[in-house]
């Protein structure tokens, strides 16, 4: 009798775990996206400031998956100016998935946090209306930009977006991983690409062709 009870307890436990995983995946909006490419929409971190073309994280990411990856990063961009170019850079292309990475320049230019979050929410909803999956990329590290990380995590939950937290963790405090005080070097961008890859991997419909980076 005890063995029988133990069996059913274990079975119910694993059934619950599987159910949670399936439910969590369904919570991401547009997982049936019909797009055929990934667009990386962001500022200098996405653009690849400080490294040669091909060493930016979107280029590294493109070698890990069997899907076109477009770098729509713009050096110096803020969430305010990004909204002005989102139609041509993102929406008109109707991509499979969009990685949204903003806040560094907002922080440096004293854009209120509430306005940054509001702008990114608007971006997310516009992208989702076109049928694409959204991943919010957070560039915080430890206490650096921590308040943004908390707000972006909540925003991702509220909008059904993938959340990629703290991609600069261990990079921004490590001179051997940076090209200047803020921007990664090629090794740093490889780490960022690996972190993003792991976050979006469960939602990719294409065959993975590269090796996962750690």
List the helices and strands and how they pair.
Blueprint: H1 2-26, E1 38-42, H2 44-47, H3 57-62, E2 69-73, H4 79-89, E3 97-101, H5 104-108, H6 113-129, E4 133-137, H7 146-159, E5 162-164, H8 186-200
Parallel strand pairs: 1-2, 1-3, 3-4, 4-5
Helix pairs in contact: 4-6, 6-7
Structural features, described:
- Strand 4, helix 7 and strand 5 form a beta-alpha-beta unit.
- The protein has a 5-stranded parallel sheet, sandwiched between helices.
- By secondary structure, it is α/β, with parallel strands linked by helices.
- The chain is 45% helix and 11% strand.
- The protein contains 8 helices and 5 strands.
- The relative contact order is 0.16.
Descriptive tags:
11% strand, alpha/beta, five-stranded parallel sheet, 214 residues
Q: How would you briefly describe this protein structure?
A:
The chain has 214 residues and is α/β, with parallel strands linked by helices. It has helices at 2-26, 44-47, 57-62, 79-89, 104-108, 113-129, 146-159, 186-200; strands spanning 38-42, 69-73, 97-101, 133-137, 162-164.
């Amino acid at each position: 009798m005890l063995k029988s009870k133990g069996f059913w307890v274990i079975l119910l436990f694993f059934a619950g775990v599987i159910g949670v995983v399936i439910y969590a995946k369904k919570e991401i909006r547009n997982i049936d996206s019909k797009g055929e490419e990934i667009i990386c929409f962001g500022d200098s971190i996405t653009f690849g400031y400080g490294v040669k073309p091909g060493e930016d994280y979107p280029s590294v990411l493109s070698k890990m998956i069997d899907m076109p990856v477009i770098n729509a990063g713009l050096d110096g961009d803020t969430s305010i100016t990004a909204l002005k170019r989102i139609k041509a850079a993102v929406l008109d292309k109707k991509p499979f998935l969009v990685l949204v990475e903003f806040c560094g320049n907002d922080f440096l230019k004293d854009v209120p946090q509430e306005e940054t979050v509001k702008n990114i929410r608007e971006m997310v909803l516009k992208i989702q209306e076109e049928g694409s999956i959204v991943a919010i990329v957070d560039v915080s590290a430890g206490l650096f930009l921590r308040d943004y990380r908390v707000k972006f995590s909540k925003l991702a939950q509220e909008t059904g977006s993938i959340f990629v937290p703290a991609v600069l963790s261990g990079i921004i405090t490590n001179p051997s991983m940076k090209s200047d005080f803020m921007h990664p070097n090629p090794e740093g961008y490889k780490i960022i690409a690996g972190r993003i890859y792991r976050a979006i991997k469960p939602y990719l419909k294409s065959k993975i062709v590269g090796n996962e980076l750690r």
